[in-house]
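Hi support team,

I'm opening this ticket because the web form for multi-chain structure prediction keeps timing out on my end. I have pasted the exact lines I submitted so you can reproduce it. The total is 229 residues across two entries, so I didn't expect it to be a heavy job. Is there a limit I'm missing, or should I split the entries? Thanks in advance, R.K.
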Amino acid sequence: MKILSLIAGVLMGAALIYGSLDMPKWGDPHSPASTHVSPYYLQHSIEHAATPNVVTTVLADYRGYDTLGETTVVFTAGMACLLLLGKRRKRQGK
Amino acid sequence: MFEFIVSYYNYWMYIGLMMIGFYAMMAKRNLVKKIIGMNIFQSAIIFFYISTSVKKGATVPILENAHGHATHGIEHGANAINVMQYANPLPHVLMLTAIVVMVATLGVALAVVILIYRRYGTLEEDEIMKLVRRG
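Hello R.K., no limit was hit. The queue was backed up. Here is the completed structure from your submission:
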């Protein structure tokens, strides 16, 4: 089983390294990730939201509903932990 | 050759880290070690995304001179923002979301592991499977 997992890991790593050769170079300012939509946020965040920190602007202003959903995720995880661990304790009490 | 390695070694580091996590998830029998492997895997993906936001010679995406009177200058284009001066902010934001999901999964997984330990008294996968088969 361990040998099989090792072979699977090495094969997948080799495939990923082969794929990484088509990625943009490290620190390339003209990579696709930083040319299409991200300059818009950098240029307009100060007039839209009056906040110098662009990460804060995108997180709390442009993607405000996404952050609201994120708090729902944390709340659901907390409730799941409470339900999983709290129920057991009650049964032990009986 | 040296430039080739410098351009891509960050991806190779993350792939190595990711495969360490992948191997731990598959081959380790202890459930807590599996969860540690899952965390290493997720951290590798987060590092990968953060590395795509790097621009050579750029600083953190906090605008300079954005407070007070200079703000008017930026708004009216007299003091235009140089995009190449700041790192790409979008991967940072998306990875904040991913970190939240990572913490949530870690918490629920550890809660389930605590329940398994209380029920079976062990965290080794093969021993748990033996106990399950026995009924």
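A quick check on our side: The first helix of chain B runs from residue 2 to 27. Let us know if the file doesn't open in your viewer.
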